[in-house]
């Protein structure tokens, strides 16, 4: 409960910092007996949706829209997934990529939290569409960003042109930071998983910590430096592998 009206949350035309004290739960089509916290959406100016789903015993989920691809990452608990005639159990740090128009069904027998990214799929002429991807983030190989061993990146989706989205984790050793202020065409959705530090977004500087969500529009200047005595880690989405001119058609 806020007695002062103070919050670290800030929403601007080209970026947003969204903190847990301001999260509001609601319902979304396709999710039954589940609470959804919509963090990033077209109403904000984004070209994708990012939301957290809080499930309980009896909660279910499926896609209710055509031509929308989905990436789901389990934050805590476990959830059953049925897709392609097979049943999988996903625990914390398991993730799944579901291509557009792929029938699937999530079902929770107990409490579970997932972060979900939904995005319209942009097909590429002559390119096969992606297949379902299942993975466990800690088992995914990591590599240093630009040769910096203190900053490790894990690519959770294959790096090929059939995918028009990428989802990675980035882990910063205490004191590690991005080597430059990035300004680029991709937009981002980001969830801090652990630790924290200072994030520059545009001309603003924000303290950030686990549980915070960030939206970065195309060409928003961005930089992060980790603070504290333990590693900092976040999950980050971006659009990739497509010409922007396709969005004008």
Question: Which keywords apply here?
Answer:
0% helix, 10-stranded antiparallel sheet, 249 residues, 8-stranded antiparallel sheet, mainly beta, Jelly Rolls
Write up this protein.
The protein has about 250 residues and is an all-beta fold. It folds into two domains: about 25-135, Jelly Rolls (Sandwich); about 140-249, Jelly Rolls. Helix content is about 0%, strand content about 50%. The protein contains no helices and 21 strands. The chain has strands at about 10, 15-20, 30, 35-40, 50-55, 60, 70-85, 85-90, 95-100, 105, 110-120, 135, 140-145, 150-155, 165-170, 190-195, 195-200, 205-210, 215, 220-225, 230-240. Strands 3, 4, 5, 6, 7, 8, 9, 10, 11 and 12 form a ten-stranded antiparallel sheet that branches. Strands 1-2-19-16-21-15-14-13 form an eight-stranded antiparallel sheet, with no helix packed on it. Strand 13 (about 140-145) and strand 14 form a beta hairpin. The radius of gyration is 18 Å and the shape is globular. The relative contact order is 0.18. The model has no long low-confidence stretch (mean pLDDT about 95).
């Amino acid at each position: 409960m806020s007695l002062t009206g103070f919050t670290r949350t800030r929403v601007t035309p080209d970026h947003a910092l969204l903190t847990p004290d301001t999260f509001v739960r609601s319902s979304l089509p396709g999710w039954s007996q589940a609470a959804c916290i919509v963090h990033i959406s077209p109403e904000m100016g984004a070209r994708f949706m990012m939301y957290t789903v809080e499930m309980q015993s009896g909660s279910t989920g499926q896609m209710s829209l055509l031509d929308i691809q989905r990436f789901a990452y389990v934050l805590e608990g476990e959830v059953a997934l049925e897709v392609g005639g097979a049943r999988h159990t996903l625990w914390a740090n398991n993730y799944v990529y579901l291509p557009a128009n792929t029938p699937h069904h999530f079902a929770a027998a107990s409490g579970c939290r997932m972060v979900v990214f939904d995005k319209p799929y942009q097909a590429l002429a002559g390119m096969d569409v992606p297949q379902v991807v299942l993975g466990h983030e800690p088992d995914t190989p990591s590599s240093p960003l630009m040769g910096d061993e203190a900053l490790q990146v894990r690519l959770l989706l294959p790096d090929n042109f059939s995918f028009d989205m990428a989802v990675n984790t980035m882990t910063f050793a205490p004191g590690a930071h991005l080597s430059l202020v990035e300004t680029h065409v991709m937009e981002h959705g980001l969830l801090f998983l652990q630790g924290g530090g200072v994030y520059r977004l545009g001309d603003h500087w924000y303290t950030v910590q686990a549980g915070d969500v960030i939206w970065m529009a195309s060409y928003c200047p961005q930089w992060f430096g980790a603070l504290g005595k333990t590693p900092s880690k976040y999950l980050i989405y971006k659009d990739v592998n497509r010409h922007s001119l396709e969005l004008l058609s």
